[in-house]
Structures are given as C-alpha cells and as structure tokens.
Amino acid sequence: MAIVVSRIDERLVHGQVAYSWSVAYNVDTIIVVDDFCAKDQMQKMLIGMAVPKGKKNHIFTVDETIQYFHDGKDLKEKIFLVAKGPEVYLKLARGDVNIKSINVGGMYFQEGKKQLSKTVYVNDQEIETFRQLQALGVESEIRTSPKDKTLDLYSLC
C-alpha cells in the first residue's frame, strides 16, 4: 500500500480534491480521516457522493486508519489521504503510518490565526503540531492544486 498524497483540506472531499488530485496522482482509493465524519451516516453519504466513479473510498477514525495500514501492508492500492488538520497526521505518524509529506491546501481564516498563504491560516497550536511533524521528518508543502507552485510550509511558520 502506498500513500501517494496526504492532504489537509477542511472541506475534506470536494471537486478539487476528488478530481484534480486523485487524477493527477492516479489514486485508487481516497481515505478521509475524521473521527466525526466516520461516525455520522449523513457525512459518510455526502462524502461518498463526491468521490469520483471508479475510486474506492473509506471514511475512518484516526484509530481505524492506523489499523487499516497495519492490516493491509500487502495491498497494492495507491492511496490519497485527506484530513482537516495537522493533528490527524501527527497521530498517524506516531501510529507508525508512513506519512512522508503533507500537502496543505485549505486551512481557513479564524480569529487568532496567522496567514501563510491565500488559503492557509494557522494558529499557534497548529504551528507546534507542524513543528512536531517536521521533527519526525514529515515534509509539508502548501499547494492549492496539483499544478500550483510548491511553497515550503515550514519556512513560512
């Protein structure tokens, strides 16, 4: 099993995620990692409707995602992970899921957040989480779409 894209997008699966990224990286499976959505049937249905035809999808909690990767090491899937924030990827990395890099595409404005790019705003806790990911050797880039220029998130924090 290979994770070909790990993305942060607060909207999870939408047109750009479902089509641009999954096509650009030729993924077989989209995995949404979100504890709330994994337990909400309406969210599962809505996310499932946004996934392109022919792509498998799963909506897992963080713990279920860790278990999926531990159980399926021999599968030949090309996987696209998507979560709402960096804390999910830190938990996955600490759970021995091989997260090499994170594409940060949509972390939106809220009071108290610092702007890093047109679509990425972070608070102090998120910056600390990214620093912990960096210490684990996980790269983080900012790109809204696959064709955009890559910005190194760590150099902007």
* Percentage beta strand: 25-35%
What are the secondary-structure elements, in order, as H or E? EHEHHEHEHEEEHEEH
Helix content: 25-40%
Over all CA atoms, what is the radius of gyration? 15 Å
What would you call the structural class? Answer: alpha/beta
Low-pLDDT segments, ≥5 res: none
Shape: globular
Count every helix, treating DSSP H or I runs of 4 or more residues as helices. Answer: 7
Number of strands: 9
User: What is the residue-averaged pLDDT?
Assistant: 92
The side-by-side strand order for the widest beta sheet comes to 3-2-4-1-5-8-9
**Largest beta sheet, briefly?**
7 strands, mixed
Q: Give the CA-CA distance, first to last residue.
A: 32 Å
How would you describe this structure to a colleague?
The protein is built from seven helices and nine strands; from the N terminus they run βαβααβαβαβββαββα. The protein is of the alpha/beta class and 157 residues long. The strands form two sheets. It has a seven-stranded mixed beta sheet, sandwiched between helices. Strands 6-7 form a two-stranded antiparallel ribbon. A hairpin with an 8-residue loop joins strand 8 and strand 9 (151-152). The longest helix has 12 residues, at 124-135. The radius of gyration is 15 Å and the shape is globular. The protein starts with a strand and ends with a helix.
